[in-house]
Recover the amino acids of this structure.
């Protein structure tokens, strides 16, 4: 299909009026910015990135962090399924070994070290999906910056600090431990 | 596991009568009797018949090397037998085939009734239905029952990934649980013995561990205590489960009830690369599987070989691997006479210097102490060097205490190979004093030591100081490596390939699981270079070719080839 080009009118062919109307728009923005402090960015989201961070929607897949339960205990039990499923091999877990004991009640195992290489992470969410303990979640951080590569390998301490508290409703291990404790009163000598 | 690669000359067993049965709708012929766990002929069971037909029947308590208990009920299958008329003749269908009566409950003929395949012998004309709807329902019911009180703590269980309860639940179980009552809780992380942790909640009471320790080891220490849901495994009161074969119960435990203290929480099993290897702790040469990940060795597991170790291995051998991962492993070519700084050039300079020394050495002025922990191929190359310089050779004997099961008194893995190749004489170690005497008198000027600390075997540091040349290859530092003029870092058996001959003359090969540490090289590789430089004989640069060359030249190995060794090895005349 050939679209015939419309001929310009005499007014348009003058050229200078178009320049002038362009300057009018520029001048309006200049006036608004300098004297009223209004910008398009302010109008739409309250400021410019990176001073103003874009707020992501619910369900956004940002950086994966470890979470604690409401009692402040690490939820991860070092099952290493996330390490196994991670497509870019960003997760590295050091299991506790025979001597390692958990510094929390309930489940007897927890990771000695847990590292996520955020440079490798592709935010796919497999780790969150595979986790049987609801211990890792993709949260809302999308802009990770550092001055060296080493800084972007987050260790267990940092991941737990960034991850915050998960409002656990199941309390799997605590529930088990309490149930077991109740049964020790069963009238049978051990 | 292949066992066809054997040269054993056994009289053919008398032919066993075969009977015709039908498995899953297919006609097959199976022998009427088959060997049981001790090798005695017993009537063939339905489970064995299904295995012959190539159909897996799920099972927990049945183990081919243990007596049959029949308590887990997992192998229930529906079956049928030919109907017999009052005249004791088979009742025939109108089309001439014999009529089959399916097994049903006697008081409820519409309900199918299974039988445990592991303990039910087959009979002529029998039909087994391992995939029928009734069989599937039985399996679902058994699994549901086993899972009632199971804690489902797979995320913290070391067995996860090699757990039969996990596998069968996926393959044969129901998707969900109908059980809403609180589960019965039993003790967790019980200290059963010095090497074993017991989790009673996970136990499905198959009694494999009890039968193993009673019937195979002969140490009747385990039993089931308490009643009903509180049934649990325990050692006899006041004792601990501490014989030298306890870790085999971890292997045969189908669930995560018995786990190894050594391997506890170290690595998930699905990460482990499995390599066929051998145990090097004694002359038995148990077949093993090495589990490794990212150049770290995590565990040994026994590998089935009925000619050597059945499916077992001893705890002392199994736990003797930690030296492989040691931090102080030798990884650099060193030595007080080595005139080179960079490791890149060190090998070529060291090999050149040593070749020079050996070429110039007067006949009889060289002595070799080779280790009986070295492979046949390495000993063979060392023998070539020794023959060239007319050197005196020997190995160091290691004698411990043996037992009636697997542990041999000879703690060297390759004493037989050392003797067959001619490194050591009939009595190993008898030349060591001659070598010491030769150094003292000054007739021996060059000593080559492989994998031994000779200062502990009669050639002290004062004698080593008298030598003109001390050439040592080892994998861990010791007093001899410290005195070495040339120190060549070697490889552990898991870092190279090779073969051993066990005390009964079984030639077996092992594979490489890890890469050599640092600048270390497999001994046979640099020995091959030395042999070429010194004797001018060119050999093979692959382990296959080297072994086959050795089997042509060393009479005891005649007719054996590397490929022919297979996974199970070959028995030779010794």
């Amino acid at each position: 299909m050939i679209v015939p080009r419309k001929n310009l009118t005499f007014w348009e062919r003058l050229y200078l009026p178009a320049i002038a109307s362009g300057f009018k728009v520029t001048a309006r923005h200049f006036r608004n910015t300098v004297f009223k402090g209004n910008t398009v960015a302010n109008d739409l989201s309250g400021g410019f990135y990176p001073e103003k961070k874009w707020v992501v929607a619910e369900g956004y897949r940002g950086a994966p962090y470890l979470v604690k339960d409401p009692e402040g205990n690490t939820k991860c039990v070092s099952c290493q399924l996330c390490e196994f499923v991670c497509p870019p091999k960003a997760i590295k877990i050091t299991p506790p070994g025979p001597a390692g004991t958990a510094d929390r009640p309930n489940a007897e195992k927890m990771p000695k070290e847990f590292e996520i290489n955020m440079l490798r992470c592709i935010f796919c969410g497999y780790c969150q999906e595979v986790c049987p303990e609801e211990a890792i979640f993709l949260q809302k951080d999308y802009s990770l910056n550092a001055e060296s590569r080493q800084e972007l390998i987050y260790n267990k301490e940092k991941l737990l600090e960034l991850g915050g508290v998960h409002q656990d409703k199941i309390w799997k291990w605590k529930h088990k431990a309490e149930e077991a404790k109740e049964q020790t009163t069963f009238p049978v000598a051990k | 596991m292949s066992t066809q690669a054997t040269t054993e000359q056994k009289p053919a067993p008398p032919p066993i009568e075969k009977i015709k049965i039908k498995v899953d709708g297919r006609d097959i012929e199976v022998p009427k009797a088959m060997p049981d766990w001790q090798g005695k002929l017993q009537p063939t069971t339905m489970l064995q018949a299904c295995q012959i037909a190539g159909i897996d029947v799920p099972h927990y308590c049945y183990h081919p090397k243990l007596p049959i208990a029949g308590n887990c009920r997992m192998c229930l299958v529906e079956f049928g037998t030919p109907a017999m008329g009052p005249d004791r003749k088979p009742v025939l269908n109108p089309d001439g085939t014999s009529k089959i009566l399916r097994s049903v409950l006697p008081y409820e003929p519409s309900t199918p009734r299974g039988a445990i395949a592991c303990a039910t012998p087959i009979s002529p004309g029998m039909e087994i239905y391992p995939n029928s709807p009734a069989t599937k329902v039985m399996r679902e019911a058994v699994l549901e029952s086993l899972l009632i009180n199971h804690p489902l703590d797979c995320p913290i269980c070391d067995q996860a990934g090699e757990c039969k309860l996990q596998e069968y639940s996926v393959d044969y179980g129901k998707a969900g649980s109908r059980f809403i009552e609180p589960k019965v809780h039993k003790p967790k992380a019980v200290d059963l013995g010095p090497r074993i942790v017991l989790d009673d909640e996970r136990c499905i009471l198959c009694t494999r561990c009890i039968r193993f320790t009673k019937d195979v080891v002969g140490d009747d220490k385990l039993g089931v205590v308490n009643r009903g849901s509180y049934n649990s495994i325990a050692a006899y009161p006041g004792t601990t489960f501490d014989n030298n074969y306890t870790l085999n119960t971890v292997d045969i435990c189908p669930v995560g009830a018995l786990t190894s203290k050594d391997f506890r929480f170290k690595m998930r099993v699905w990460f482990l690369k499995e390599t066929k290897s051998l145990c090097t702790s004694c002359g038995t040469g148990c077949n093993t599987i090495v589990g490794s990940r990212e150049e770290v060795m995590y565990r040994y597991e026994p590998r089935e070989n009925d000619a050597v170790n059945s499916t077992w291995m001893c705890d002392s051998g199994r736990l003797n691997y930690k030296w492989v991962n040691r931090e102080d492993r030798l990884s650099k070519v060193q030595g007080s006479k080595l005139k080179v700084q960079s490791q890149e050039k060190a090998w070529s300079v060291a090999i050149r210097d040593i070749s020079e020394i050996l070429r110039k050495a007067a006949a009889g002025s060289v002595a070799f102490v080779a280790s009986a922990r070295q492979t046949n191929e390495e000993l063979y190359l060392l023998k070539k060097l020794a023959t060239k310089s007319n050197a005196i050779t020997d190995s160091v004997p290691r004698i411990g205490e043996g037992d009636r099961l697997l542990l041999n008194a000879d703690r060297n893995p390759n004493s037989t190979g050392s003797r067959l190749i001619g490194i050591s004489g009939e009595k190993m170690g008898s030349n060591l004093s001659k070598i010491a005497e030769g150094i003292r008198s000054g007739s021996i000027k060059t000593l080559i030591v492989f994998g031994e600390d000779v200062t502990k075997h009669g050639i002290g540091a004062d004698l080593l100081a008298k030598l003109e040349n001390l050439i040592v290859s080892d994998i861990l530092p010791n007093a001899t490596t410290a005195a070495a003029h040339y120190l060549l870092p070697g490889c552990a058996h898991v870092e190279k390939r090779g073969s051993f001959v066990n005390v009964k003359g079984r030639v077996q090969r092992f594979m490489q699981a890890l890469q050599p540490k640092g600048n270390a090289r497999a001994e046979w590789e640099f020995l091959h270079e030395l042999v070429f430089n010194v004797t001018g004989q060119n050999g093979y640069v692959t382990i296959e070719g080297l072994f086959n060359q050795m089997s042509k030249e060393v009479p005891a190995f005649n007719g054996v080839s590397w490929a022919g060794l297979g996974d199970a090895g070959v028995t030779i005349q010794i």
